[in-house]
Here is the input.
Amino acid sequence: MLLFSIIIPTYNRATILNETLITVLEQSFPDYEVLVVDDGSTDNTKEVVEKLNNEKINYFYKSNEERSVARNYGADRAKGKYVIFLDSDDKMKKDHLWSIHEFIKNSKVQPEFIFAGYEILNMDETPLYAYGINGIFRSRNLLYGNYLGCSSVIVHTELFKKYFDTDRGLILFEDWELWLRIISENKLHCFPGKSIVMVNHGGRSVLNYDAIQLNTKILHFKAHILKSSNEISNSFINKRIFLMGVYSYAALHIAMTKNNRLDAIRYLCIALFNNPLFVLKRRFFAIIKHIL
Here is the structure.
């Protein structure tokens, strides 16, 4: 049985997919497969994959149903013990899989839910932000936001299948929602590898939604979580932290588009209402920076 199945959902990203795939094929650890799930692309994605002509890559084309469905499609066909969902605009450092393998091998208890850290670069490849921790991740930290980044999470295949939900209304928040459910019953084991590289560019999916679309998704996500999570809905503090996180997330990403600054300010005010201590958070200053 293979150790890793790397699932890459993609849609009309032929121009950048090749570079992502090359970073995967250059991995120093060989026990893996790659599943490229083409979610209805109309560009030359298939030709880009075929040109690499590598036996590790399996290409699947399906009708467009958004990335959460594409990820599940790939997981259903995965042969690896663990699945890794790599966004098609992210990259792996050469030792990414090796470092995860070593972490699993040296763990006293075999981890099923792992976070390996990441770094984010500006368009000119200068460092913007890096995040990685060591030990067990505090579940309460996820109430404020999705710190994990999908590409840096490694999940045992059966664990993923147990918890995955294809509610298309959760698009943009499906990772956050999934991690909240898994971590409520499972430990998240972390090591600060920071071997996933993301580039902060204007084509990232969250920036492709206008304020109205984002508002609809936020309201759906909020209602879904408050209905499904007793840990959040039944705790005044947890609920306030969660609402601060949701509305500040919205404020930040609307502000980043440089459109609808009034909506960004409105969401920022709601976040502050839920927790005035938000003024001490890094995200608060990022929102202010983008609004001005």
Q: What stands out?
A: Residues 209-291 form one domain.
